Amino acid sequence: MTTLAAQALTWYDSHARDLPWRAAEATPWGILVSEVMLQQTPVVRVLPAWTAWLERWPSPADLAADTPAEAIRMWNRLGYPRRALRLHACAVAITEECDGVVPSDVDRLLALPGIGAYTARAVAAFAFGQRVPVVDVNVRRFLARAVSGAADGGAATTPADFALCESLLPEVDAPLVSAAYMEIGALVCTARAPKCVDCPVIETCAWRAAGQPAATGPARKPQGYAGTDRQVRGLMMALLREAVDPVPLAALDAVWPDAVQRGRALAGLVEDGLARELPGRLYELPG
């Protein structure tokens, strides 16, 4: 085991957060659901949503037997509701094509709807104990600093990121080491205010040894929400989720004053499959 992996694993053993999808009894389906929910969403918001989701749909077949509309309603205000549609489509595919069993092979996971490179490897590692590189933004930033001496891991995951991470995984306990890299990046080696004094690799960190040089790429601007099409879409989705009957266009129009932006947001919801138009200018969640 490399020094970095050993240091990270020792730290993880005593500092890892107690999260239900990390428990020994967590199922592959539960782990897959957690990975989809955690995309661009803080753990504190995911915890109650994940618990409620698994209580209602403990297996892919349970979700597949329900409607996409119910998946969207259950998603509530977790954000990016297309993820709910993808999870439903994924559950249908697992039920119909995999006999209801979440596949363990990365390529088969990648073939499922809505499952990308990160999620497929995360499920293979954390649900099935495989030695595959699991690389998210936190892992990229931690390894970029600790190994390469760079301030961050760049704008997107590259094949080089997977290769670097894989080279730093031991033959034994690789999933735990991947989780440790991720946890250090999330809690210690953070983007804006890294807690270097708490870092288990402070003595060997290449970035610290180089004087903590600033990032050289363009600064990332925080993604706004107020006044954006995302906010309008969110208001419309809230109305559609809470409605028992189809919603008249006039009611959707009432959520936002700008007619052009309203029209664009509603058209986007229909195009994305999050809403459907019925005769009489009525709208509802997909059936």
What does this entry look like structurally?
The structure is a single chain. The chain has helices at residues 3-15, 28-37, 43-56, 60-64, 68-75, 82-97, 106-110, 117-128, 137-148, 159-167, 174-187, 206-209, 229-242, 249-253, 259-271, and strands spanning 247-248, 276-278, 282-284. With 287 residues, it is an all-alpha fold. The protein folds into three domains: 3-128, Hypothetical protein, domain 2 (Endonuclease III, domain 1), CATH 1.10.340; 137-168 and 177-209, Endonuclease Iii, domain 2 (Orthogonal Bundle), CATH 1.10.1670; 229-284, Arc Repressor Mutant, subunit A. It has a three-stranded antiparallel sheet with strand order 1-3-2. A hairpin with a 3-residue loop joins β2 (276-278) and β3 (282-284). The longest helix is centred in the N-terminal third of the chain and has 16 residues, at 82-97. The N and C termini lie far apart (51 Å).
